[in-house]
Amino acid sequence: MTIRILLVDDHAVVRQGLRMFLSLDGEFEIVGEAMDGKQGLEMARKLRPDVVLMDLLMPVMDGVTAIGLIRRELPDIEVIALTSVLEDNAVVGAIRAGAIGYLLKNTESEELIRAIKAAAGGQVQLSPEAAARLMREVRAPESPEALTEREVEVLKLLAKGLSNKEIANTLVIGEKTVKTHVSNILSKLNLASRTQAALHAARIGLVDGIGTQ
């Protein structure tokens, strides 16, 4: 299955570098490039990529704003924040806006490729530095509307880093049913992304850590 990717970064040399090495992987198709958040949002509407790689510091519209608008309008598109910034407000802002992942631009190319493939499958991808900051900062309601037993099972597996397909196989249910459960979990916990849900699960003790099976 081809993963369609949109690159959003205001530096042409960064986009060119990403395009060059991502194009070497047969599973990827770079469907477009944008130089700011506004253009990124417009291209996401038009091209409907599977994954958007989004810089955060850009002119016209910053990445956090663009992530929020894409996730609200086009919830099937997963967004990975790919940035050189590791400030708490940037990390927290991107995840609150709905990014499924947060990676630094010094991430090894193989790790980025793995992260894109995982994000396309609905798996949370955070750099260790970002995860540490998020555990302190991102808060879900202390007593949210009660999750059903099945939703708790889905949340636990999601937080352990499983994709929708893997969760479906583990629980012997359909992949569409998993998507519905995830949507209900986010709605009940008043969260914007799977990443926030995984952090919440770790914080309340459902799992030992994010992405640890």
Report on the structure:
By secondary structure, the chain is an alpha/beta fold. The protein folds into two domains: 3-137, Response regulator (Rossmann fold); 149-203, Orthogonal Bundle (Arc Repressor Mutant, subunit A). 51% of the residues lie in helices and 14% in strands. It has ten helices and six strands; from the N terminus they run E-H-E-H-E-H-E-H-E-H-E-H-H-H-H-H. It has a six-stranded parallel sheet, sandwiched between helices. Strand 1 (3-8), helix 1 (12-22) and strand 2 (28-34) form a beta-alpha-beta unit. It is globular. The mean pLDDT is 84.
> H/E element string?
EHEHEHEHEHEHHHHH
Counted up, domains total: 2
Q: Per CATH, what is the topology of the largest domain? A: Rossmann fold
Helix content: 40-55%
Number of strands: 6
What is the beta-strand fraction?
Answer: 5-15%
Poorly predicted runs: none
What overall form do the CA principal axes indicate?
A: globular
Q: Biggest sheet, strands in spatial order?
A: 2-1-3-4-5-6
**CATH classification, class level of the largest domain:** Alpha Beta
